[in-house]
What does this fold into?
Amino acid sequence: MSKLCPSAQPGMDNCTIIGLVQPEGSAVKLAYLNERVAATPELLAMAAPVAPTEVFRLSATCAEHKCPHFDGSDCQLAKRVVTLLPAAVESLPRCTIRKECRWYSQEGPKACQRCPELTTVSFDISPDMQEVSGLPVFHEATAAR
Ligand code: SF4
It folds into this structure.
């Protein structure tokens, strides 16, 4: 059975809303929905003027080889999340996709303990978050040369 990506983009196959991104101080906390809601264009448009992924956390069928994070067997993004980020919560959030979630099936409870503080779109350009996202890390010391 295909796995679900828990950090999907609008337009991906089988796209549903699994949570709402809630600001919490300078961070965010995901409010997980009790049921999956189809990510219709009408619902996603309600996020305007910001991007849907700033308001909604989306799940969709994992794109596997079409996704830059997939190495042929694993999601490297999930691996970086559990390796580089501290746990945000102790107990696992109530989540509607756990049985099908790629991150959970690959990394287990550690993925869920970090999941509530993650957003699909991030404006955090700190070196730590660049490393988690898989972007090239910008080192000031190198750039100064
Ligand atoms: S809480 Fe766990 S099962 Fe649910 S989307 Fe996040 S990583 Fe997947």
Summary: The two ends are 50 Å apart (CA to CA). The first strand starts at residue 4 and ends at 5. The longest helix spans residues 76-84. The helical segments are 41-45, 52-55, 76-84, 102-107, 109-114, 127-133, 140-143.
